[in-house]
Write a structure and sequence with these properties.
binds zinc ion, 44% strand, 3 helices, eight-stranded mixed sheet, alpha+beta, 132 residues
């Protein structure tokens, strides 16, 4: 796998106003809230240099983010790594015995292709691989 950089850090939040607190601390205004229907969440991005914080809001009772917050509380949810040739990365990971969440990369909030490595493969650390 060729990892290029950390694209963003996903943070699961319970309340809508959290972005205002983070924006006040960092002096950065987030992007507009966007719905990700397939995940039952909304997201906002806070850009810091060439990386970002992604705030994840559960909108649906059954979303995995909602379940994550119930189980572990709000906080760091995943780290997204930009990679070169996502399909090839997924193939290599499967050959090494790692599993992914879903069979194929999906198109995420900003139109980039992405896939999560299953947390069972990484002792609970959720890694998202994305290709731009
Ligand atoms: Zn993400």
């Amino acid at each position: 796998m060729k990892a290029i950089r950390i694209d963003h850090i996903g943070i699961a939040v319970e309340k809508e106003g959290v972005w205002e607190t983070i924006a006040e601390i960092l002096g950065i205004r987030p992007s507009e809230k966007q719905k990700v229907e397939s995940e039952g969440i909304s997201v906002r991005f806070l850009k810091i240099g060439d990386t970002r914080i992604e705030l994840l809001y559960p909108e649906d009772e059954n979303s995995t983010v909602k379940k994550f917050i119930e189980k572990r509380g709000p906080g760091i949810h995943h780290i997204a790594i930009e990679v070169e040739d996502l399909e090839k990365c997924v193939k290599e990971l499967r050959e090494k015995g790692f599993s992914t969440v879903g069979e194929k990369p999906v198109t995420g909030a900003e139109g980039y292709r992405a896939i999560f490595i299953h947390p069972k493969s990484t002792q609970g650390v959720l890694l998202e691989l994305i290709e731009k």
